[in-house]
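Milestone 3.1: sequence recovery, worked example.
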């Protein structure tokens, strides 16, 4: 059983692939049709993504559906290691050469953009 898992499990850094405009549009339409009253998209800036990916051992990002303190749907995102485990803490060496424990980066404050459907389809 363990050997089959090693053969079939993709490395965390390799999860995801480019699917192209046509298939992407189809996926978005499927979601919008099934969930007409739900937030369709979120915008996340490059800086927080780079901050998460820059953590030692970070191989990807896990996105969680969430509800913020104002009752609005959002995403919470956290780095994951090669085993797919969330990075909530990591070991680092400070300027004095001492080993320290640092808090992992957990992000939110997405910019919800329900009109992105039209921007996606029409390239706006």
């Amino acid at each position: 059983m363990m050997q089959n898992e090693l053969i079939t499990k993709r490395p965390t850094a390799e999860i995801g692939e480019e699917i192209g405009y046509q298939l992407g549009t189809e996926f978005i339409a499927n979601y919008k049709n099934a969930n007409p009253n739900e937030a369709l998209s979120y915008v996340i800036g490059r800086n927080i993504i780079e901050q998460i990916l820059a953590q030692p051992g970070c191989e990807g990002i896990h996105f969680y559906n969430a509800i913020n303190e104002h009752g609005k749907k959002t995403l919470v995102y956290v780095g994951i290691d090669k085993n797919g485990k969330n990075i909530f803490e990591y070991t680092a060496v400070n300027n004095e050469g001492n080993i320290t424990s640092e808090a992992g980066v957990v992000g939110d404050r997405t910019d919800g953009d329900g009109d992105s459907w039209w921007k996606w389809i029409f390239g706006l």
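The radius of gyration is 18 Å. The mean pLDDT is 85.
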